[in-house]
Design a protein that fits this description.
8% of the residues lie in helices and 42% in strands. It is mainly beta. It has two domains: 179 residues, no CATH class; 76 residues, no CATH class. Strands 5, 6, 7, 8 and 9 form a five-stranded antiparallel β-sheet that branches. Strands 10, 11, 12, 13 and 14 form a five-stranded antiparallel β-sheet that branches. The longest helix is centred in the N-terminal third of the chain and has 8 residues. It starts with 8 loop residues before the first helix and ends in a 10-residue tail after the last helix.
């Protein structure tokens, strides 16, 4: 790719040169967008926004209300349309364990004001995820564990993962509306709700709108959120792709572990 879609290698190298070999292993990438890279530095307990085009770093304190040692967070960085000077960071998490993880929370930082807005929250849907939990109780380990966000329209979406089960499973999609500054949890298709974390990815659907890529062995399904004439939204299966017909598979590959989703473009 050519600029501005491709960052010169020298720019990223210049950013990395500011960190020594020990510190770089404490960086956890949270996403990139509009020429900006958002990471969390566990060593400093700070968020780092790297402007890869201008080779600049911005160090942001974790805002009040977030305890990343007790409840992991995810985030997204973006610029407003037509704004090449300032940026915003959305940090999302769940309440900590002593708060029973009954809500997701979010806060927006603006580089223009140098501060964060008020905390916004939304309840997590009740779910009895094990035989030891009563009806209407909440899982105790729901988190946005290192999931990749996607910007669709004026909302950012993350996968909401239930870590209370033996295998991480998809529990919903978290939406943050940038215009209205509100959070919402969107249910996922029942057909894929019990798949493990490596088998789905939230993405932009063909033709626009919110979509999900689901992968089961060598079969990939593309889902899209559709709204009917009454304004009711529901998931519709758009397409099924047989990857074994596209990939050069052999008996050794088929006996090995199934393919997983690492990202999308």
């Amino acid at each position: 790719m050519d600029p501005p879609n491709r960052v010169p290698d020298s720019h990223l190298s210049s950013c990395l040169e500011t960190l020594d070999d020990d510190r770089i292993w404490y960086l956890m990438p949270l996403g990139s967008r509009h020429g900006l890279l958002l990471t969390f530095c566990e060593l400093w307990n700070k968020l780092l926004v790297w402007d890869t085009f201008n080779v600049e770093q911005h160090h942001l304190a974790v805002p009040p209300g977030f305890d990343l040692e007790k409840a992991w967070a995810s985030g997204a960085v973006f610029r407003a349309a037509g704004d090449n000077q300032y940026f915003q960071v959305v940090l999302v998490s769940t309440e900590t364990a002593d708060q029973q993880h009954t809500r997701t929370i979010a806060r927006v930082y603006s580089s223009e004001t140098g501060g964060s807005g008020d905390i916004v929250s939304t309840p997590l849907p009740p779910k009895a995820s094990s035989s030891t939990m009563g009806e209407g109780e909440f899982p105790t380990k729901i988190t946005m564990f290192l999931t990749i966000s996607v910007l669709v329209g004026h909302s950012i979406y993350w996968l909401l993962i239930d870590r209370s089960a033996e295998i991480n499973t998809l529990d919903g999609i978290l939406e943050f509306d940038l215009e209205r500054q509100i959070l919402a949890v969107i249910p996922v298709p029942l057909d894929i709700a019990n798949n493990s974390l490596a088998q789905f990815q939230v993405m932009r659907a063909e033709g626009g709108g919110l979509g999900i890529l689901s992968l089961s062995k060598f079969s990939a399904q593309l889902w899209k959120m559709e709204t009917d004439s009454d304004g009711v939204a529901s998931w519709m299966l758009q397409r099924t792709i047989n990857l074994d017909k596209l990939l050069s598979t052999n008996s050794d590959i088929e006996r090995g572990p199934p393919p997983i989703i690492l990202g999308f473009c």
